[in-house]
């Protein structure tokens, strides 16, 4: 299932590049034109749009935001120069992506954390999940491991010691509720809530689906010592692009921190 999902995602990503980015190349080349940034719609594109509308002009930054709903295209577009930067991912995901795809994308500045959560339309507490319940989890390597670690941290399963960011259901050593796992593309997990007993959902997809992580999650990741902060990223060698430096400064400004606090009310947490 996982291999099929990855192949499908790659094909969709290629199509998205052809359809959505064919006119973007000129804007991200050199350092004088607009800076085009690929981003997930929520909250990344919303945060960037706030910067574009309220802060960028004062810094002399021509910022353009391109939205993508998958976790592949923003990196492939950054690597091939179709966009100048992206904002959607965390370090474990990027490390895995670079290793598997031979890319050399690097982080510039960490902006926020979207806590991963367990949600359900059928139970009000995680302990209420029945024996044999089906739980949907993301099928990409890092987010699947992250989901399993969330369940383990809350006593629903036990994982092998030291399993790290490549954990799969086969690494479960104890499963007292005999939970069954349905591996789905991350974007599909909130849509599965009517068909499964619970689902582990990435913060951005939860918000897009009108879920409020701070209120609706049965269990939620702790921000303490959390390695999954989301950052602005570029192809290696572009870190010193003046436009990138301006954007990095604006994304970690007091104005952006206040915007995140006011708009997301604890469902997105500023990391600076």
From TrEMBL:
Segments passing through the bilayer: none
Pfam families per record: Lipoprotein_9
Domain of life: Bacteria
Principal cellular location given in the protein's record: membrane
Cell compartment(s), UniProt: Membrane
Signal peptide (residue range): 1-25
Keyword Signal: yes
PROSITE patterns: PROKAR_LIPOPROTEIN
UniProt-listed SUPFAM superfamilies: Periplasmic binding protein-like II
Keyword terms of this UniProt record: Lipoprotein, Membrane, Palmitate, Signal
InterPro entries given in the database record: Lipoprotein_NlpA (IPR004872)
Protein's membrane topology: Lipid-anchor
Family: Belongs to the nlpA lipoprotein family.
Protein name from the UniProt record: Lipoprotein
Originating organism: Streptomyces olindensis
């Amino acid at each position: 299932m996982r291999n099929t999902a990855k192949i499908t995602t790659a094909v969709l990503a290629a199509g998205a590049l052809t359809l959505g980015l064919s006119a973007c190349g000129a804007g991200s080349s050199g350092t004088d034109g607009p800076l085009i940034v690929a981003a997930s719609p929520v909250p990344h594109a919303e945060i960037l749009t706030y910067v574009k509308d309220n802060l960028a002009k004062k810094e002399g930054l021509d910022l353009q935001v391109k939205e993508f709903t998958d976790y592949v295209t923003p990196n492939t577009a950054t690597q091939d120069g179709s966009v100048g930067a992206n904002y959607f991912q965390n370090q474990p995901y990027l490390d895995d992506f670079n290793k598997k795809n031979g890319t050399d994308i690097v982080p510039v500045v960490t902006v926020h954390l979207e806590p991963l959560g367990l949600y359900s339309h059928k139970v009000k507490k995680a302990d209420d999940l029945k024996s044999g319940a089906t739980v949907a989890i993301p099928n990409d390597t890092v987010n699947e491991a992250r989901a399993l670690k969330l369940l383990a941290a809350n006593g629903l399963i036990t994982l092998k010691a030291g399993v790290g960011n490549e954990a799969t259901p086969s690494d479960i050593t104890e499963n007292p509720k005999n939970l069954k796992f349905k591996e789905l593309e991350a974007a599909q997990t909130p849509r599965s809530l009517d068909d499964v007993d619970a689902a582990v959902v990435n913060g951005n997809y939860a918000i897009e689906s009108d879920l409020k992580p701070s209120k609706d999650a049965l269990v939620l990741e702790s921000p303490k010592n959390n390695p999954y902060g989301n950052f602005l990223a570029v192809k290696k060698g572009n870190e010193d692009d003046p436009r990138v430096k301006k954007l990095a400064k604006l994304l970690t400004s007091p104005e952006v921190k206040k915007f995140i606090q006011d708009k997301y009310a604890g469902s997105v947490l500023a990391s600076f």
